[in-house]
Design goal:
The structure is a single chain. This protein is an all-beta fold. The chain has two domains: 136 residues, no CATH class; 81 residues, no CATH class. The protein has no helices and 17 strands. It is globular and about 45 Å long.
């Protein structure tokens, strides 16, 4: 088994950039790039910026992270992988991206293919994916272009295709998802959002254990509050 430990401090532009990373095992290809000021990635019990987290592990991992800009933090905690192919591109301002793909440490987020591309100001993302179960055939795509968005995300799907495209302004999105353990799970999951607008607040929960969930939202709105709940588990629901 290949064991890999990387400790880098990058001073190419400004001395604020720091990369600390842990990695252990299998077919890892890891590319890291930081340009700008105040950027951190995390791992190996980081001491300089007092931030720690990132742990990669993994089976067939290809991971590319670009942080280009200012005051970005990518932290994570145990991206355990399986067939992970991920590309994260952060392009500026005060983004904080804190991701746990699977914290059980058992290489079970399955076939994940993640693309998250953020260009813009004060965004804050907190993403979990499959912390209590498997994500199985997950293919997650985000494109976020700007402004003061805050996303709190959680997926625990057996199968999922989750695409979010948000263009701007002060959107607040909270998505939950949750698992599906049925015998015909090949179509379960699916969440699609295409939002171009301002001042929106969206709370979306699917949370199904007995049926396949589908949700698609296209919106060109402003000053909107949207709450959508799908729950086939027989419990009370609200936003």
């Amino acid at each position: 088994m290949m064991r890999f430990l990387l400790l880098l401090l990058s001073f190419n532009i400004l001395a604020d950039n720091e990369i600390f990373i842990n990695q252990s095992g299998n077919g890892a290809t890891i590319k890291l790039e930081q340009l700008g000021s105040g950027n951190l990635i995390g791992g190996t019990s980081a001491t300089s910026g007092t931030m720690t987290a990132l742990d990669l592990d993994g089976i067939d991992m290809t991971l590319t992270i670009n942080q280009i800009g200012s005051s970005n933090i990518f932290r994570s905690d145990a991206i355990d992988s399986d067939y992970l192919t991920a590309s994260f591109d952060f392009d500026g301002d005060s983004n904080v991206y804190d991701m746990i793909l699977n914290s059980s440490g058992a290489y079970s987020a399955d076939y994940a293919n993640l693309n998250i591309d953020v260009t813009g100001s004060s965004n804050t993302f907190d993403v979990n994916i499959a912390e209590n179960s498997n994500a199985d055939y997950l293919d997650l795509d985000w494109i976020v272009d700007g402004d003061s968005n805050a996303f709190d995300y959680d997926i625990d799907y057996e199968n999922a295709t989750n695409y979010v495209d948000i263009f701007g302004d002060s959107n607040d999105l909270t998505f939950d998802g949750s698992g599906y353990a049925g015998t015909s799970a090949s179509d379960s999951g699916y969440f699609y959002l295409d939002l171009t607008g301002s001042n929106n607040t969206l709370n979306i929960t699917q949370s199904s254990t007995l049926a396949r969930d589908w949700l698609k939202i296209e919106s060109n709105t402003s000053n909107s509050t949207i709450c959508i709940v799908q729950n086939d588990g027989g419990t009370s629901t609200s936003c």
